[in-house]
Design brief:
By secondary structure, the chain is an alpha+beta fold. The chain is built from 13 helices and 38 strands. The protein starts with a helix and ends with a strand.
């Protein structure tokens, strides 16, 4: 089918009558797509070139490995299956976005074939299926970001199973600094360790406001007898053999359940919220046939002799997830992190009449339960369109594979995928860039600044006492509230179709801030390492509003560009065709705040905050005055080309060419600057 014909359909949606054979026949439905002439493409699929394990193929499980890969027209035949999104730059100069759709009964994906690019579909069930379903959305626009926005908007008009990010609000808890157990302690956690960590956080001079207890607390098969006081067997080594055996925590590790931990949090003068990690399928291998779930078993079905999952009806899935999530709320938790979501279809495959329907039912049941009982949820290992098309209430999804301390290659991979995936994922969710070690000598500083522009939760994973306050404090206010951009950072136009691991150019991203400010960052992600160049251009600034449907015009008086790392600034005028050039020799970043000049004033913001303008609010200004307030105490940095600047509320100190600093002694300070 010609993609041009799909663009002419209502809302650019392909709807078709399908006959799907039983999955065991391995007879996938496919449709060859005739693409318009294009020069560049960006293909999103799991386990592509540059992946940590590019030879791995777990489809239809996407795992947490969705990678944006720039490809040329000659590469189309070789594209891996499981393609979730495709962006084309046409020879005409416009852009086409192609989005495979997951509906109630069927999931679709892209893949290369001998004939070119094909759309494939399946229900992964053991019975044949006849259904009429939407299969593909296509949109074209002269702006790449608008094309992506349009294609998701078209899908949203067709389906009510998901909501766009603009239809949802980020929960309050995710606007504050947090801490998670996983990267430091893995699953070796216990009641005593958590209590000790909370005590240590209480002593730290950092405003950590929530803790997330990750994997390592569940009752699992092989060890589910740990509900008795005299203990039980060790868990099997094979992850697929480990299964959920009960909703309560492992009483060997947590002998008092969650009571003592929640009591300690309630007594805390610092920690306000707590979260708990759960596995979407029960555990890595599902739910144990022999378990402690009691009456819940009537809502489960056997997918093997030793494994169960929820029956694929709304009533049964709802009963399971509502009971499990309610248990967490009653235990005192405010939010959950749900892992391993993309494995749900493979677990049902072979036992269900329609594995896609079963997975959809589970997702909707989980979404309903969290919306009913908790404040929010982080989706994890949910890098698939099936998960995206079920994000009805959930607001946050991991947008890359795991961060790992002192792992240079993974750090590069993590940065590229985190920002690159937000181009397509950012239409429905805020991206979770994962936890990080502020004490990481390899990537701690770069990670801290990258988390600042993620637009999602920011949480640490250092062992108690190992935090680096100098890297953490610039992320937030003294209250612990994260200074967040107005939308997640995404690649700038010049970085969309560039392979950052092999190119001579840096990987550059941008995010919008208040008062038409922006933050621009560049990264050297090459492997093997080599020097790369980066150029900040005014067209990058114009793309800052990519995810909020705003095109920011170049300010007539230009931009003040503040280098957060070197603490220096430069002025860039709208008519400057060259822009500002930078060089990065090894793994590193350039981190720039872009503040527009209005009436001769530019507000850089609260100094020594990564997103300095986000702490300020401009009330009014003219050529002779500037009135603004800041949410925190600290040093306010202003640019004004003048011989002197006065302020009745505090002394104004010149700190550089046309740079003025005012010491604010208390939060919510309101000041008026005059010539």
């Amino acid at each position: 089918m010609n993609v041009d014909s799909i663009r002419q359909m209502p809302h650019g949606i392909l709807v078709a009558d399908l006959h799907l054979a039983p999955d065991e026949n391995q007879d996938m439905w496919t449709l060859n797509l005739e693409l318009p002439e294009f020069t560049d493409a960006l293909y999103y699929a799991p386990f592509q070139k540059h992946a940590i394990n590019p030879d791995l193929d777990l489809w239809p499980e996407a795992y947490n490995q969705c990678h944006p890969l720039p490809v040329s027209p000659s590469d189309i035949h070789d594209l891996k299956r499981g393609g979730m999104f495709l962006l084309l730059r046409l020879t005409s100069g416009s852009f086409v976005a192609i989005l495979p759709i997951v509906s109630t009964e069927v999931m679709t994906w892209l893949q290369g074939t001998d004939s070119g690019l094909a759309l494939a579909a399946s229900h992964f069930g053991h019975m044949e299926l006849n259904v009429t379903a939407p299969l593909l959305a296509v949109a074209e626009n002269t702006c790449p970001y608008a094309a992506v926005r349009d294609v998701w908007g078209a899908a949203r008009k067709q389906l009510d199973s998901f909501h766009l990010r603009e239809e949802k609000a980020l929960p309050e808890v995710f606007r504050y600094l947090g801490w998670c157990t996983w990267e430091q302690y893995r699953d070796d956690i216990s009641e005593s360790l958590i209590l000790e960590a909370i005590d240590s956080i209480e002593r730290e001079d950092l405003p950590i406001r929530w803790v997330l207890i990750d994997d390592g607390h569940l009752q699992i098969s092989g060890a589910f007898t740990s509900i008795t006081a005299d203990g039980g067997a060790e868990a099997p080594d094979d992850a697929q053999d480990r299964k959920l055996a009960g909703f309560q925590p492992d009483l060997n590790k947590f002998p008092h359940g969650w009571e003592r931990i929640q009591n300690r949090i309630r007594q805390s003068k610092k920690i306000k919220w707590s979260g708990i990690w759960l596995n979407f399928n029960g555990y890595w291998g599902g739910i144990a046939s022999e378990n402690n779930l009691g009456a819940i078993n009537q809502h489960l079905c056997a997918i093997s002799e030793v494994t169960k999952l929820p029956k694929s009806t709304a009533e049964d899935a709802g009963a399971f997830y509502d009971a499990w999530i309610r248990q967490q709320a009653e235990s005192g938790f405010n939010f959950i992190k749900v892992d391993n979501e993309s494995q749900n279809v493979p677990l049902y495959r072979g036992s269900s009449s329609n594995a896609v329907r079963a997975a959809n039912v589970n997702h909707q049941a989980l979404e309903d339960a969290v919306e009913k009982h908790l404040d929010g949820m982080i989706n994890c290992m949910a890098h698939s369109n099936l998960c995206a098309f079920n994000a009805r209430f959930s607001q946050v999804t991991r947008c890359s594979e795991d961060y790992a301390k002192e792992d240079l290659w993974r750090a590069k991979h993590h940065l590229h995928n985190s920002f690159g995936n937000m181009l397509w994922m950012g239409q429905t969710i805020w991206g979770d860039h994962d936890m990080f070690h502020s004490s990481d000598p390899v990537a701690g500083a770069v990670m801290a600044r990258s988390k600042a522009i993620s637009g999602g939760p920011v949480y640490l994973s250092d062992a108690s006492g190992d935090f680096d306050p100098e890297l953490v404090r610039p992320l937030c206010l003294s209250s612990g509230r994260i200074l967040m951009p107005l939308a997640p950072a995404v690649p700038v136009p010049s970085s969309l179709f560039v392979d950052p691991y092999e190119a001579d150019a840096a990987f550059c991203v941008i995010a919008p801030l208040v008062d038409q400010c922006a933050v621009w960052a560049a990264y050297n992600l090459t492997s093997p390492e080599k020097s790369v160049s980066a150029v900040l251009r005014m067209e990058d600034y114009s793309a800052a509003g990519a995810l909020i449907d705003e095109n920011w015009e170049a300010p007539a008086e230009g931009l003040i560009v503040w280098d957060e790392v070197s603490q220096t600034c430069a002025r860039m005028l709208a008519a400057d065709p060259e822009g500002l050039s930078f060089s990065l020799k090894t793994f590193s970043d350039i981190f720039l705040l872009l503040s527009p000049v209005f009436h001769g004033w530019a507000v850089i913001g609260l100094r020594n905050k990564y997103l300095a303008p986000q702490a300020c609010h401009v009330h009014s200004r003219g050529h002779e005055y500037l009135e603004l307030s800041c949410e925190d105490a600290g040093k306010l940095l202003i640019w004004k080309q003048a011989d002197s600047v006065a302020c009745e509320e505090g002394e104004v100190v010149p700190v550089g060419e046309h740079l003025w600093e005012i010491q604010l002694r208390k939060p919510e300070s309101r000041v008026t600057l005059r010539l």
